[in-house]
Write a structure and sequence with these properties.
By secondary structure, the chain is mainly beta. The chain has 3 helices and 32 strands. 45% of the residues are buried.
Amino acid sequence: MLMKRILLLLLTLTLSAPTWAEWELLREQNATYTFHITKDGTMLLSDFLWEMNGGIYISEDHGVTWTHTGAKDYNYSNFYEFGDYIYAIGYGCHIARSEDGGHTWDILYYGRALEEAGVPHATPDNLEGSQVQAMALYNDKLYVADCNYGVVMSDDWGETWKTTDYKSLSYEVDDGGKGDGTAIDFLYNLVVYNGKLVCTALYRCYEYVPSTNKWKVIRNDSNVTAVWTIFDNTLYVGRSIFNISTEIPFLMKTNDLKTWKNTGRPADTEDTNVRALYSDKDCIYAGLQNGGLYFSYDKGETWNGINEGLPHRIEDGKEVSDYEHLLRIVSDDEYVYVAMYNEPWNAEEHRSGVWRLSKKELEPFRPEGVKTATMTAASLPAYDLGGRTVKHAPKHGITVMEGKKVIAE
């Protein structure tokens, strides 16, 4: 009888204890760089091969099968969805644009605007290596942040481009008298928050002033503030730079772009190299360079990580504790997805692709009394780095235009 009671107790504990499912591989793809789920549920991913012989892939059956779209490859680093279009930003001042849900793509080019404006070093040879990191929709205009040459804008969905004032995005340098003593800040991201367009960069954070077409400094200590998301009307930002220290904030947050506070930090890591930030109605998700995924139900005060099943790095032929680079986070109603990147020349040893985890596995971590966040169209960003789509409609003040096809450059 005692033995039966013990067995019954063990069975009860086994059934009642939480069991965590592992991340499952959705798509293995060498050098996967970004991942996106469109408003229609179509999945897109791109790889980042230096030879530019990869491109954009599409799945219409939730990741079961994938097809190469045939888009000319410019090493696309992210997808955005505005109006009736999907955009993929890439190298050499090139942006791919699709108006059929990602099946076919036209190529846009903003390099001529930089040349005509006389932006320093914006010559055809130099522009071939230029990389655009971010795009935003602000006051019915597209804005694109080029890492090296400033921010350009378009009021016709990317057919033509104009520059914003690049000098106001510059800082002083010692160039030995070879130039004007300034250099354009290295631009990482664009965010629309509280009716303002903000550009985050290597050294500073800037706010755009439409009346002057210039940028004003709102923070002098950016320190590679490269990723952001908006959760419950609060802007969260992270630094994408190698830092191993509990003295450096894990994330910072603000409600007015003036006062900034630190969030809590994961208890089991000193790493603050956040390469991906994302939020849905339930959680904030933070992806580390090599430290896997952490998520928070309570606005960033406490963090938990479930990384079982994610691929680890390989060093000297052996698996190490570091994970592959986590660059993108996306979620839908059922799953959280992460895009893991490795260098394309390490394909034989390292694993890269898209993994997913059932959101049911996160529920045991939800504190009692914590509800879903309140999100409003006015406060939502036009996009986030995880690829979340915000549907724009006329009632939100966005005018949807019918674009013309653009001849490939």
